[in-house]
Design goal:
This protein is of the alpha/beta class. It is built from five helices and six strands, in the order βαββαβαββαα.
Amino acid sequence: MTAIYIDADACPVKDEVLRVADRHRRKVYIVSNGGLRPNHHPLVENIIVPEGPDVADDWIAERASKGDVVITGDIPLASRCIGAGAQVLRHNGEIFTPENIGHILATRDLMTDLRSANPLMQGGGKAFSKADRSRFLDAMEREMRKVQGG
């Protein structure tokens, strides 16, 4: 049965995931290093992992498999979950696929190298918008239907 995994520490769409999960009656694992208020929704299991690099990512990647949906902005985690057969969405509704993940990983690595070579080259992502939230909800609903065969 489809499970939903949220890489939760910086996830702006937890409430939207729960709305879709509730509609489809699917278990949700909210995985974090702590610092989040526990969610008492009956479909939610709050997973608190120890502090450390990639501990939450490892927990998700070790469990996500074909038919599951993973919500993350972490590109290496997305790649691992795609390799396991899971559907993976970014918070803005972008869908990571076997066809696009290689290019996305390469771009990420290139930008990391460029930033380390030029300390003046900084910048964060754009602000999360209502349009991003809406795109995410649409994509999440489509992915849930896809993994459920409908």
